[in-house]
Specification:
Blueprint (H helix, E strand, L loop, with lengths): L16 E3 L24 H13 L3 H6 L2 E6 L3 E6 L4 E6 L4 E6 L5 E5 L2 E2 L3 H23 L9 E10 L5 E9 L9 E7 L5 E7 L9 E4 L3 E4 L2 E4 L8 E7 L11
Antiparallel strand pairs: 1-13, 2-3, 2-15, 3-4, 4-5, 5-6, 6-7, 8-9, 9-10, 10-11, 11-12, 13-14
Length: 255
């Protein structure tokens, strides 16, 4: 969940990418919070807005049924994520390192500059790094689906303008005992009609009054059964996104 930077996807596979369309009127009660979500301190308006975002992005059922997501982040890393089983492949070009990690079990393999790491302490350190990369890079892509995750508190901050005098519903996220940077804070600017996040502001520390940066969250397209923002207008964030129902197991086991 930080401003790390990433790359272009490695797998050749079938995928569909179409302009975002309206989704069905899914019942918001089908989007229960994860265990550990801060229900007590999250206000009802914020939870209602979070549910409407989930529906606009394709709905909870479509998100739960999405299996493989691949993307490129800022030209530095290629990632392939098996969302069902927690397997992740990361190819980091700047340091010629490939990570194969299961982010649930933390088992895996790492190869750097053509040599596989076998020393236990070094391997563990690199696998921990791989999980941190995945946490950060996936958040840049799928954050709107994670608004009611464990350790998250959401607050509705009312309507506000940001650019071109357009009004947005503002949803604030804070964290406790979750991820690598629980001290962060985000403000999400949600389109009043479309219920889609259009901008996000990042606060390195929740105590800050001014955001460290504000960036667009735009160019929504349909990938499989869900809607994602990629190839954004500022040139940053995830690119070359693919969603697949099947991929070869070798992607997650072989260098």
């Amino acid at each position: 969940m930080k401003q790390l930077i990433i790359l272009s996807c490695l797998v050749a596979c079938f995928w569909s990418c179409q302009p975002a369309k309206e989704t069905s009127n899914e019942d918001p009660t089908l989007n229960p919070p994860a265990e550990g979500f801060n229900f007590q301190d999250s206000d009802p308006a914020a939870m209602e807005l979070a549910d409407s975002i989930m529906i606009a992005m394709g709905g909870r059922k479509a998100w739960d049924n999405t299996r493989f997501i691949s993307w490129n982040f800022f030209g530095r890393r290629n990632l392939v994520w098996d969302k069902k089983d927690g397997r992740v492949r990361i190819e980091s070009m700047p340091d010629s390192t490939t990570y194969l990690v299961n982010v649930n079990s933390m088992e895996g393999r790492v190869q750097t500059k053509g040599q596989e790491l076998t020393e236990p302490d070094s391997l563990k350190k690199m696998l921990d790094r791989a999980k941190s990369i995945w946490i950060n890079d996936s958040y840049w892509l799928v954050m709107p689906f994670k608004l009611k995750d464990s350790g998250v508190t959401i607050k509705y901050m009312g309507e506000d303008t940001l650019v071109n005098n357009n009004y947005y519903n503002v949803l604030q996220l804070t964290f406790e005992n979750v991820g690598d940077t629980p001290q962060n804070k985000y403000d999400l600017y949600v389109d009043v009609k479309e219920k889609l996040v259009k901008y996000w502001s990042y606060y390195r520390d929740a105590s800050q009054d001014s955001a460290s940066w504000t960036r667009p969250w735009d160019n929504y397209q349909r990938y499989g059964s869900i809607i994602l923002s990629a190839d954004r207008s500022d040139g940053g964030g995830p690119k070359n996104v693919k969603v697949d129902e099947q991929l070869p197991d070798a992607l997650f086991t072989d260098f």
